[in-house]
Amino acid sequence: MRLIINGEYKDCTATDIAGLLQELGHDEALVATALNEDFVPRAARGHTRLSENDAVEIVSPMQGG
C-alpha cells in the first residue's frame, strides 16, 4: 500500500499504525502519531486501519535548548 509518511510517499505492507511503526523500526513508546491530521493515541494504534494514500505523521520528541 502506498502511504504519505512525514510528507514522502512510501510503499508499506502494514495495515494499521502499530504495524507501520514496527515496519519502519520506530519504538512505539517514543513517538507521537497522526493519521490524516488527526492525533492517534498510543492505545488506538493497533486498531487504527490504514488505507491507500493516507497521510501519516510520526514525530519524535527532541531534547535541546
Automatic annotation (TrEMBL):
Pfam families: ThiS (PF02597). It comes from the Bacteria. PANTHER family: SULFUR CARRIER PROTEIN THIS. This is Thiamine biosynthesis protein ThiS. It comes from Aureimonas altamirensis. The lineage of its organism: Bacteria, Pseudomonadati, Pseudomonadota, Alphaproteobacteria, Hyphomicrobiales.
